[in-house]
Design brief:
Oligomer: single chain
Structural class: alpha/beta
Number of strands: 5
Order of helices and strands: HEHEHEHHHEHHHE
Distance between the termini: 15 Å
Largest sheet: 5 strands, parallel
Bound molecules: adenosine monophosphate, magnesium ion
Strand order of the largest sheet: 2-3-1-4-5
Shape: globular
Length: 234
């Protein structure tokens, strides 16, 4: 795994200064796509071995702003893997029943079993992102969650889980263009929601929430990677 975009524990994060353009790291799209296919082959092979070995497991977390590319990334990386060994869990707004429990209650059952890979499309991190930005609970409730999350992830790691966390970093202009596409292209209409426009107005609030999340939950055992995501191919 390349460490180019990996954060270090204790590192200060200023997303406005972090690259969102993948083309600054790779100047040739065709070449990048070829490399990606080779890496994907390797991923399939390793996944088959992880499943056969049946001794440990992996959790991959994806977070991003709306239109950041979570769905597409998960679609392309899982292409061709043995579906018996990979689970994708998407986390939407919690149900009434889920809200009646602690915030990790609905997450834990989706943690990978031995031999498995779980991929999270959104995750327990929403509980320090949308929940914070929209004031869904008071700060006295969400602030201790950074520690709860670190402790939860430590438990998973102690139980032989490898955790990789990816924040797909797009800038505000790129998000505008992708929303516009969702309006203009019929096949993409279903992805568009007016709520997304409301959230767009809170861009700065989200950046502050993401920055603190990245700073407080980058650990040696469960690192974050900030991936420049303005170009999907990167
Ligand atoms: P999407 O990923 O586009 O299907 O949207 C899912 C929505 O669920 C997003 O707007 C998330 O912010 C929201 N969501 C996910 N987890 C939570 C949570 N714990 N509390 C409130 N909203 C959430
Ligand atoms: Mg959406």
């Amino acid at each position: 795994m390349s460490d180019t975009h990996k954060l270090e524990p204790g590192q200060k994060v200023n997303l406005g200064e972090m690259p969102a353009d993948g083309k600054d790291f790779h100047d040739n799209r065709k070449e990048a796509e070829k490399e990606f296919k080779e890496l994907r082959k390797e991923f399939r092979d390793l996944q088959a071995r992880l499943y056969a070995e049946d001794k440990r497991q992996m959790l991959i977390v994806f977070q991003a702003m709306d239109a950041g590319g979570k769905d597409g990334t998960i679609r392309v990386i899982t292409q061709g893997v043995n579906p018996q060994g990979v689970r994708v869990a998407s986390f939407k707004a919690p149900s009434k029943k889920e809200l009646a429990h602690d915030f990790l209650w609905r997450i834990h059952p989706h943690a990978p079993a031995r031999g498995m890979i779980s991929i999270f499309n959104r995750s327990h991190y929403e509980d320090v992102l949308v929940v914070r930005v929209d004031n869904l609970v008071p700060e006295s409730i969400w602030r201790p969650r950074y520690d709860h999350i670190n402790n939860f992830e430590e438990l998973l790691v102690d139980s032989k889980t490898t955790i990789l966390k990816f924040y797909l970093h797009i800038d505000r202009e790129e998000q505008r263009e992708r929303f516009q596409e969702r309006v203009d292209i019929q096949e993409k209409n279903w992805k568009f929601s007016f709520e997304d426009l409301e959230k767009r107005k809170q861009w700065d609030g989200y950046m502050a929430a993401y920055e603190e999340m990245l700073e407080k939950t980058t650990t040696t055992y469960a690192p974050w990677y900030v991936i420049p995501a303005n170009q999907n191919w990167y």
